[in-house]
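Good day; I would like, with your permission, to put a structural problem before you. I would ask you to consider whether the tokens describe a fold that such a sequence might reasonably adopt. The full record is reproduced below for your convenience:
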Amino acid sequence: MAKTTYLMAIGEAMREEMERDPSVFILGEDVANNLYGSTSNFVEDFGKERVRNTPISEGAIAGAATGAAMAGMRPIADFNIAPFMYVAMDQIVSMTAKSTYIYGGQTKVPVVMRAVMLYGNGNAAQHSDRPYPTFMTVPGLKIIAPSSAYDVKGMLKSAIRDDDPVLCFEDGNCWFTAEDLPDEEYLVPLGVADVKREGTDVTVVGIAGAVPQALAAAELLAEEGVSVEVVDPRTLAPMDTDTILASVEKTGRLVVADPAHEVCSAASQIAAVVAEHGFWHLQAPIVRVTTPQIHIPFAPPLEAPLFPSSERIAAAVRSVLE
């Protein structure tokens, strides 16, 4: 076992898969320059053919990666910051997501598109979005949002081996969290949720960076005699709703903590599924702890209170227990 940060785990996953499979390569803006620290020494070890800097054109990155995947390669496209994916919407939605379907299964699109979410750090409105709910509405895309070093490494490796396009949304607030990872190779399957903490009184479903906040809230509430179960979906599409419903059946209460904006959020989808399929198990209304429907301000004092925190989650739990 070795103590590994979330950011280091991303690099380990890509390195292991590139060593295992010569069809895996990386492309994106400044990937050869180790912009965020996840491709250290990659050019020296794999060469510029497999670690390719691109022009500043997200549409070109998405299009080239999708075409390469259809031609038999397994590209990892790095979009640097998640909102930059908006510039590539036509390629991602019209081509990446739909090609396997529109060609009747004659082609596969085994591409991974990575994007870090840098919210909560004074990056202002254009750089602070958490856009995974937007892509959850698009059939044909698998979407993952790991919250720990263990999960991001195992899920990214599984994503690279998957024959469908996978969007990997990495939470920048988790970058420097660390844990012991196994020395031996491991994979974390896509589409399987994880119960991060067992509990009996209320279920808290956390998304991405809200998971550590939910666990901190659970610790706080334990001192008050409240037993909180924390569930991390890990994969947002396809989502493991069976695990969530089973937890709600046990606890009878649900709080969903999601850093995305409230309207059409992952939290809204989870709440809808539980209301439709687990209504009779509920002993209180579902509560969503999300970001208000406003643009993210540049000023840190204005930005900080917007996102799910352990305090906001704990308050929501107390409300459903009243």
In short: DSSP finds 13 helices and 14 strands in the chain. Residues 133 and 315 are 25 Å apart (CA to CA). The mean pLDDT is 97. Residues 2-181 form a domain with the Rossmann fold fold (CATH 3.40.50.970).
